Amino acid sequence: MASYDLVVIGTGPGGYVCAIRAAQLGMKVAVVEKNATLGGTCLNVGCMPSKALLHASEMFEEAAHSFAKMGVSVSAPKLDLPAMMNFKQQGIDGNVKGVEFLMKKNKIDVLKGTGKILGAGKVEVSGDGKTETVETRNIVIATGSDIARLKGIEIDEKRIVSSTGALSLEKVPSSLLIVGAGVIGLELGSVWHRLGAKVTVVEFLDRILPGMDGEVAKQFQRMLEKQGFTFKLGAKVTAVDTSGKTLQAKVEPAAGGAAETIEADVVLVCIGRVPYTEGLGLKEAGVALDNRGRVEIDAHFSTNVKGIYAIGDVVAGPMLAHKAEDEGVACAEIIAGQAGHVNYDVIPGVVYTTPEVSSVGKTEEELKQAGVAYTVGKFPFTANGRSKVNQTTDGLVKVLADAKTDRVLGVHIVGREAGEMIHEACVLMEFGGSAEDLARTCHAHPTRSEAIKEASLAVGKRAIHM
Ligand code: FAD
Ligand code: NAI
Fold this sequence. Notes:
This protein is of the alpha/beta class. The protein has 14 helices and 22 strands. This is Dihydrolipoyl dehydrogenase.
């Protein structure tokens, strides 16, 4: 029987990164993957394909609407959807092969099949009609998450789709109804809207992007409406009639009341994701779950069973690839006897739309609720030189700092390239820096990042360009 120091179940960003770090630390490692390709949700049906389509559809939109005003005259772009899907697939393949290469480079065994924990120290792998059992000193559960479903609305991945189906539609729907104004709804809604679909988003709450700063979300909503999105907030879809040529969705106010019917070619259900532990044998192995079905862990990623750990989407916390990766590294280091650690106060979140939305640390609502005295500095991109010359002035930077110590507690950005810009705030916050530190850091001119410096100056009421 093969024997390892560590067997990681699942090869998403959490699992494969954990395996690499453990191998770097001298462990003999195997990963178990039931999917035909490595890389998990993120590489196969998540982050990567969605970003490829966001990029391609943005280029399509720019060619159609922005080139001419810059004096670049081209004939109206034509959409070749199969070619765009091929571009997406090439991106997936490249990244998946990259993970395969990294497994080989780090001498990590890849065991293809479904992993089942038979108890501490034993994992059964079954696939292709074969079953083998391997011995291991440690197990890391990195099995990720699955789509959350709406009761009574069956996803067929053709007309009623989850994010997976929405990444592979065969033609542009003339109308797309999206259930849930979260990250997936707004990103994939943007893709299909740019390619020509009429997009309506039904959201249960009275705001979009719950969890993001309220002011930033409100501004972002207005920008999306200007692009052509329709939002129905405080509403829910209770049924979808699939009998006709077009789908008929029944939409009711969240608090109850008169229903209306909205017609759509395609309905995208994206109301969150749920931890995935099916077939893992956790019950038999005695591994405890919390009340939301997530694997329960302590501060060191250890489950209640010694030698079994868990990381990523299958445990509590934001369901983000970089959070899973950082947990993978920390968990491997802890298993190796080192002091691995994740700072959950500094995990950025990005929505990769146009413009982008990014965020790190506390929102204004969270600070208010916690009774923390804070100061705010804001700077709009309309006053940023680079944004002006590029005519991409939508959005703002908002810096929240502790009123007494000036320590930065949160940074929120809506605007082009916001996803790249957020990281200087992350580094600053990792070092416990202040708004004054940011304000006194020389920023290259002309860059959009100068808006972060100006927003930090604005905390002390001394922005220069406003
Ligand atoms: P996963 O990536 O879900 O990987 C789990 C793996 O475990 C899978 O490969 C699965 O096949 C395997 N597995 C499960 N059970 C078993 C078993 N019993 N035996 C063997 N293998 C098993 N996050 C971001 O940070 N940025 C983004 O831009 C982003 N975009 C997204 C877009 C979409 C459309 C979606 C759906 C998600 C997106 N996410 C994004 C979220 C991101 O994909 C997840 O947070 C991330 O993949 C979690 O990583 P993980 O390693 O925990 O699990
Ligand atoms: P989400 O949690 O971001 O948003 C779900 C939305 O649906 C919420 O606004 C919620 O209020 C709403 N909702 C819930 N039930 C509803 C109902 N019955 N009717 C109407 N609205 C309802 O989840 P989403 O968008 O499905 O994404 C899943 C996960 O994937 C997220 O946790 C996210 O972090 C991750 N992801 C991250 C991305 C990124 O980092 N750029 C991109 C895509 C996904």
